[in-house]
Amino acid sequence: MTTPVNIILAEYEIEEWICISKNLKWKHSKPSEVLKNKDGYVKSRLPKYAAELDFDVLSNKCKSFKAFLAALNPK
User: What is the mean pLDDT of residues 26-43?
Assistant: First the structure.
């Protein structure tokens, strides 16, 4: 028996979802750097940001989030 595995690639890093949800832009840096400068973000607090994700915005504006949803609900 095999277990299906889906790999989701974010263009930058998972913090991209947080930045998109908060309407924060990054151009010449990584999303985690933008969060660090704006909110004092540290990677160990990543789970706390889950409650702040805007799923409607992500569903419309984020290719990696759409891929994540598709992997959760395969047809």
Answer: 92
- Residue ranges making up the domain that contains 32: 15-72
Q: Which long-range contacts (CB under 8 A, 24 or more apart) does 12-20 make?
A: 14/46, 15/41, 15/46, 16/62, 16/64, 17/53, 17/58, 17/62, 17/64, 17/65, 18/49, 18/52, 18/53, 20/54, 20/57, 20/58, 20/61, 20/62, 20/65
- Are the C-beta atoms of 40 and 47 separated by less than 8 Å? no
Q: Examine residue 55 and state whether it is found in any structural domain, yes or no.
A: yes
Domain-located, residue 2: no
Residue 74 clears pLDDT 80, i.e. is over it: no
Q: Does the global pTM surpass 0.70?
A: yes
* Statement: residue 11 has pLDDT above 80: no
